[in-house]
């Protein structure tokens, strides 16, 4: 049995890369795979090379994971891309993406792209948000596909793994992938009217990169944590919350007695921006939040 990896899934089209052959084939599901299984980009498959163009897929190896958005299997790392401007930064969207992908069990990397567009004040804003996410425990890289800033560091982080880029359209995911891989991808401008990007990527494919693959997949503008997990689980995916031991193990950090996370918020150890995202995700309100965040608002 030959072994391969599905590097593209676009409609009914399946492309399989066979490492031993060093080439790609049109993948055709047979037998049980055709009847029962759906094949995704990233799937490790077994089968036969039928001819110079065709690979018969007869089995799919057990998946490490399967992401729904984008639909890719066996992902090691997710690069969550944002911008401070063009389009403007939305920390609630970034926080939702981080919580959802952490719930799905993949390693996370935060990237702030298009930093070449920033003036002095906007650079200060970038540094503020970098500190917030680094202090929370995330690896953060500032990049520019125009000037090359941060590209080498980003490339080192993605060597030898299967990675995907997530984030809203317009933040420059395709441009970053093109800069890293040398493969020219279609990119779209940000609408002046809506300040949001236009979707340009249609299919799902994996591009070989330094012993691994980078996934090029459709962007999206919104994801909600509660569509992926129960309300009580959200708190478990804020890494900065895990540094504190509350009186009750099931503490939701709202009105409970002996909540160490609340005390840390009052001491300024947890940023109000992150805690506000948490409350918004679980659709909760606490009357003491204004007092805890008074200095920030002033």
Describe the structure.
The chain is of the alpha/beta class. The protein folds into 3 domains: 2-62, OB fold (Dihydrolipoamide Acetyltransferase, E2P) (Beta Barrel), CATH 2.40.50; 67-216, Rossmann fold; 230-297, Probable gtpase engc, domain 3 (Ribonucleotide Reductase Protein R1, domain 1, Orthogonal Bundle), CATH 1.10.40.50. Helix content is 27%, strand content 24%. The protein contains 9 helices and 13 strands. The strands form 2 sheets. A 5-stranded mixed β-barrel has the order 1-2-3-5-4. Strands 6-7 form a two-stranded antiparallel sheet. Strand 6 (66-67) and strand 7 form a beta hairpin. Helix 2 packs across helix 7. The longest helix is centred in the middle third of the chain and has 17 residues, at 120-136. The protein is globular, with a radius of gyration of 21 Å.
What is the gist of this entry?
The chain is of the alpha/beta class and 298 residues long. The chain is 27% helix and 24% strand.
Helix and strand topology:
Blueprint: E1 2-10, E2 13-18, E3 23-29, H1 31-36, E4 44-49, E5 54-60, E6 66-67, E7 72-73, E8 77-83, H2 91-103, E9 107-113, H3 120-136, E10 139-142, H4 151-158, E11 162-166, H5 173-181, E12 204-209, E13 212-216, H6 260-266, H7 272-282, H8 289-292, H9 294-297
Parallel strand pairs: 3-5, 8-9, 8-11, 9-10, 11-13
Antiparallel strand pairs: 1-2, 1-4, 1-12, 2-3, 4-5, 6-7, 12-13
Helix pairs in contact: 2-7
